[in-house]
């Protein structure tokens, strides 16, 4: 039998060496369990105990009775406790010590990397020299743990953690609650209101439950709801603009619309269309302007508000 860091093993307490702790053995090798790693009652020499093996601050294999949040080769969602800009993110693994998620495991774009408080789905592994390290869990590992989303989820809002974020969209492990590990979902790029970090907590609406149990997601309201909210936001924006006009229209690039209003170009066009049908705005080339009717209504509302405030 060999002592493998990252695993829980049943070892025999061989001897106590003060002031360090206890030496545990598998019959061939020994490993030190410091006094600070004890849990519960004082252990007895000659008895067997389940201990987790890890590397201490001097890269020596050591044992603990504390229960880790992850085991070698398994998937777990771990919280980001600290960030080192040149090394990577340090994850809390439940032992009073942290596990490194190297930069090489993270997105190339800095703004897509996890921050403190984010939670990342990872696998515990060994690096090239045998030290414990976290690796981002891939779709195939997560899919094995995910349950099939029920059809009742359609058009409901759910929350989860981003497991991968790409140009085409972001993958999310939706909270499973008491049901299990979670359900797997995907937010297409045009259904994101912003770029999402690896490990970021996100709220999204289930737009479609697939036959394989996965779901399509959107960070936007349903079209009929979103159209009202978006049109009100654009109308307010126009009323605050000089002469009630803005240099954005159906001709404006989607990236600029997303940056300015936080919505897709499709949502923008639906909102503008609603305002045009109501006679509140017109489009002239690359500009959108309030109609005289809308300007008059805005002035009337402003005057009424001023009168109320003076009473």
From TrEMBL:
Residues 155-220 form the S1 motif domain. This is RNA-binding protein. Pfam families: CvfB_1st, CvfB_2nd, S1_2, WHD_CvfB. The lineage of its organism: Bacteria, Bacillati, Bacillota, Bacilli, Bacillales. It comes from Paenibacillus lignilyticus. Belongs to the CvfB family. It comes from the Bacteria. Coiled coil: none annotated.
């Amino acid at each position: 039998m060999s002592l493998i860091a990252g695993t829980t093993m049943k070892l025999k307490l061989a001897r106590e060496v003060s002031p360090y702790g206890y030496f545990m053995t598998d019959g061939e090798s020994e490993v030190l369990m410091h006094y600070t790693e004890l849990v519960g009652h004082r252990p007895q020499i000659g008895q067997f105990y389940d201990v987790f093996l890890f590397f201490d601050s001097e890269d020596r294999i050591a044992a603990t009775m504390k229960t880790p949040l992850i085991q070698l080769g398994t998937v777990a969602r771990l919280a980001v406790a600290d960030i080192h800009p040149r090394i990577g993110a340090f994850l809390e693994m439940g032992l009073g010590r942290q596990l490194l998620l190297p930069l090489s495991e993270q997105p190339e774009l800095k703004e897509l990397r996890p921050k403190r408080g984010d939670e990342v789905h990872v696998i515990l592994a060994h690096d090239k020299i045998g030290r414990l390290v976290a690796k981002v869990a891939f779709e195939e590992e997560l899919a094995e743990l995910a349950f099939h989303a029920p059809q009742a989820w359609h058009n409901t809002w759910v929350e989860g953690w981003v497991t991968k974020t790409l140009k085409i969209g972001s993958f999310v492990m939706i909270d499973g609650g008491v049901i299990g590990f979670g359900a797997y979902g995907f937010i297409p790029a045009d259904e994101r209101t912003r770029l999402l970090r690896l490990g970021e907590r996100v709220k999204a609406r289930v737009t479609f439950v697939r036959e394989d149990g996965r779901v399509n997601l959107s960070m936007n309201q349903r079209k009929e709801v979103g159209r009202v909210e978006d049109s009100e936001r654009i109308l307010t924006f126009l009323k605050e603009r000089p002469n009630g006009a803005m240099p954005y229209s159906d001709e404006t690039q989607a990236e600029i619309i997303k940056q300015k209003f936080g919505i897709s170009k499709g949502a923008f066009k639906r909102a503008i269309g609603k305002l045009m049908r109501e006679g509140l705005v017109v489009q002239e080339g690359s500009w959108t302007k309030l109609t005289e009717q809308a300007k008059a209504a805005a002035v009337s509302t402003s005057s009424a508000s001023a009168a109320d405030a003076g009473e």
